[in-house]
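Components:
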Amino acid sequence: MRVLGIETSCDETGVAIYDTAFTGGQGLLSDALYSQIAMHAEYGGVVPELASRDHTRKLLPLIEQVLKDANLTRQDLDGIAYTAGPGLVGALMVGASTAHGMAKALNIPVLGVHHMEGHLLAPMLEDDAPEFPFVALLVSGGHTQLVEVQGLGHYQLLGESVDDAAGEAFDKAAKMLGLAYPGGPLVAKLAEQGDPKRFRFPRPMTDRPGLDFSFSGLKTHTLTAIRQLEAAGELDEQAKADVARAFEEAVVDTLVIKCRRALDQTGLKRIVMAGGVSANTRLRERLALETQKRQARAYYPRGRFCTDNGAMIAYVGAQRLAAGERDDNGVMQATPRWPLDTLNAPE
Ligand code: ATP
Ligand code: MG
Ligand code: FE
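Structure:
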């Protein structure tokens, strides 16, 4: 089954075609992405109305492009999947209405899928894909969650952030350091020059049992450190790099400690990391080290499939459409808030 996937939940227009006749990365026939980041950077964050309008402008040309890249026409498509949530409602509606319009015109099935299920299964697009069951650490701009995954649609939430998401904390720390949006990659880059011994930030919620996270205190800690340096007239480039390093070390350490606990608690030997923050090099290195120690293995999507993309939506949609799932009564969905653990396996 050849499925067109459409992602428009936030500030990335992603489109791809996945064919279930193949497995892993072989099934991905083409994918294209248009990032609105440059447009939103001017405002220091995503402006929802601008995001919706830009998706409207970019979506159809991107669909034409992926068809052309795969040497296909619209008539060769067997189904369409789109991100139905969570995300910005206006942005979601652009993808949902385009998918439904196209599916009706082509008389093919259509299904809204969960954005975080897309992130979670993005490592399935690699040749070296993990087998079920595994623990997943979802670390993105809006989510920080540990999930026990027994199979497609079998997701048990083990823990999550009680306040800010890890990516959001990176973005806020970046702002305080005078860096552009989105700040995660920029904080990581600055941290490379930083001295890991100059400051030590706390590892929130690691001193008690449990798999929940909290990152808002770290944000306050970062602000306090910057203000103190500023007051002392010491806030030079090196000091900023040292703060970035302390911040990154604290986030990475906290995430890795909880991953270790999740592996111990579940007894599983595979951990999948996905979402924008999973592109972080230090986090990947630290997790690789920890998993090696316990004969476990870590899996990640390739760099560009860590952040939002159409390929992950085409993949999830293709699995579920092939199993016979369709949007209820042909009604399009756009669900801004939608907990991952309410999903079910296809029947
Ligand atoms: P969600 O998927 O929860 O709705 P989102 O789609 O906005 O949120 P993603 O696109 O998956 O999130 O990821 C974007 C986030 O990842 C941003 O917060 C960004 O700063 C962060 N990020 C990207 N690369 C890195 C990196 N190398 N180090 C740390 N953070 C990073
Ligand atoms: Mg994004
Ligand atoms: Fe995302």
